[in-house]
Write a structure and sequence with these properties.
single chain; 463 residues; alpha/beta; Rossmann fold; Lipoxygenase-1; 2 domains; four-stranded antiparallel beta sheet; elongated; binds 2-acetamido-2-deoxy-beta-D-glucopyranose; phospholipase A1 activity; TAG_lipase
Length: 463
């Protein structure tokens, strides 16, 4: 009898040990994080893998450790997906070198910091790498696959309005085509510098457009190269005119070498949309767009308010309909803003207005604004047929913090211009939230070679 008892005890122990081991294994499995795929030129050439779209899930519970996400996840108790919460879907774009996009986690975490949502990352690195023209052939197939997943989520009770797609570059058009497949019933699509090459002339069926979701917003930062130059959303923010960004090198000749390490350097303009968006999510300062017909008009100070939006300028970020409270919501509304070259990218728009007495010969003046160790210089060509000049500057601090203005009469190259009489020199900030009076200095004569400066004595009022 004692022998039998011992066997039983041993068996119990074995079971115990087995279940202990299983427990440890299960825990280890749960801790292993999913990641985006990557591919190599060799693998690509051998056509070993085709599209292989996979999905990753991040939530506030697992913001550092992505879970693989499939239809089955919806019924798995270990899945962090919560169908009563809204879902953000991140879609990357073209991958020239087959590497995984490095910014995905940062964007997901920035979103999760602001909203308690499911973040689903679409990984289509296999279909998005190397030959751009072949990648463009893949993007609709990727969209079809995503739509199958969305359909399944709908069957499990998720509402189409609760989805917000955020697509970078070509990913914006993938999102647009998902939107087309759902007949515009998806809640929102945000395009971060939607891809331009092979899309600009496309039919709206083939590219992102306002009919793809209930609300479509886009940020344009490289519309003369990798980005699209036409408006594609309800609102389209063109940063610094949408072409060239401050702090990005302006070396266009290098841009044909996209397969080489200079790539990262060349796409600086293109990726700026993403970095500005992430910074806007951080919420340190508002990035507001001013409606205007063209960038030229904007720079000439012809557009300084948001009266068409009842005074509320649309902002980059997650606020509903970009903060637009009027209805119907406009379509393809171009919005302009200037930014600085590094996070958080916000700049103050300062309008400089000069009125001079008529000149005999054209001349040039240099205007410098200063605040302690900050400064901004602007050159203006004065013509014989014009007496009023308006120009917009991006300034790092508010109007009320400007300490001084300096004017320098640099004359013209071939003619020694004498005095220039300025009837007025005025500075104002827009969009004006506080309805401040412009700062003006009147009736000054400035001789060539004798710079003039004026100190402002002012304090910023607290509202
Ligand atoms: C892609 O990555 C996942 C892990 O995140 C892995 O399971 C899968 O096998 C990878 N795909 C390929 C084709 O290597
Ligand atoms: C690429 O993926 C493989 C697994 O498929 C992984 O071992 C490797 O670290 C990844 N490389 C990079 C740069 O992420
Ligand atoms: C799912 O989300 C809802 C709404 O945020 C919340 O009330 C609920 O507790 C969540 N469920 C789980 C299992 O976390
Ligand atoms: C957002 O804020 C976090 C800290 O709060 C910072 O680490 C991160 O760099 C910021 N991101 C951007 C894009 O400004």
């Amino acid at each position: 009898m004692p022998w039998e008892r011992r066997t039983i005890l041993l068996c119990v122990l074995t079971v115990c040990i087995t279940s202990l081991v299983v427990g440890v294994e299960e825990r280890q499995e749960a801790v292993e994080c999913a990641d985006l795929n990557n591919t190599t030129w060799l693998e690509y050439r051998q056509q070993r893998v085709k599209l292989q779209v996979q999905y990753l899930l991040l939530t506030r519970d697992n913001k550092d450790c992505a879970q693989e996400f499939t239809e089955e996840s919806l019924t798995e108790p270990s899945s962090k997906f919560n169908r009563s919460r809204p879902t953000k879907v991140i879609i990357h774009g073209y991958r020239a070198l087959g590497s995984k996009p490095s910014w995905v986690k940062e964007l997901a975490q920035a979103l999760l910091k602001v909203q308690d949502v499911n973040v689903v990352v679409v990984d289509w690195v296999y279909g998005a790498s190397f030959a751009y023209n072949l990648v463009v052939e893949n993007y609709k197939e990727v969209a079809v696959q995503i739509s199958v997943l969305i359909n399944q989520l709908q069957n499990h009770g998720c509402q189409l309005e609760s989805f917000h797609f955020i697509g970078v570059s070509l990913g914006a058009h993938v999102a647009g085509f998902v939107g087309t497949l759902f007949e515009g019933k998806i809640g929102r699509i945000t395009g971060l510098d939607p891809a331009g090459p092979m899309f600009k002339g496309s039919d709206t069926f083939d590219r992102l457009d306002p009919s793809d979701a209930q609300f479509v917003d886009a940020i344009h930062t490289d519309s003369d190269y990798f980005g699209i130059s036409i408006p594609v959303g309800h609102v389209d923010f063109f940063l610094n005119g949408g072409k060239d960004q401050t702090g990005c090198a302006r070396s266009r000749f290098a841009s044909i070498l996209v397969y080489f390490p200079v790539y990262g350097y060349v796409i600086c303009d293109h990726m700026r949309a993403l970095h500005v968006y992430m910074s806007a999510l951080n919420g340190s300062c508002p990035l507001m767009g001013i409606p205007c017909h063209s960038y030229e008009d904007f720079l000439k100070g012809h557009c300084v308010d948001c009266d068409v939006f009842k005074g509320r300028c649309p902002t980059i970020g997650l606020s509903e309909n970009s903060g637009i409270a009027i209805s119907p919501i406009p379509k393809e509304q171009k919005l302009f803003l200037l930014t600085s070259s590094s996070p958080p990218f916000c700049a103050h728009h300062i309008l400089l207005e000069l009125e001079v007495s008529p000149l005999d010969k054209s001349a040039e003046v240099e205007v410098t604004l200063r605040t302690e160790n900050l400064g901004k210089e602007q050159r203006l060509r004065l013509r014989t047929d014009m007496t009023v000049y308006r120009t917009v500057l991006a300034y790092p601090v508010a109007l009320c913090e400007i300490d001084s203005i300096e004017l320098r009469n640099t004359g013209s190259r071939f003619y020694r211009q004498g005095d220039i009489h300025f009837k007025s020199v005025c500075l104002s900030e827009f969009p004006s939230l506080r309805r401040e009076e412009p700062l003006c200095v009147n009736n000054i004569d400035i001789r060539r070679g004798a710079p003039w400066s004026h100190d402002f004595v002012q304090v910023c009022s607290i509202y």
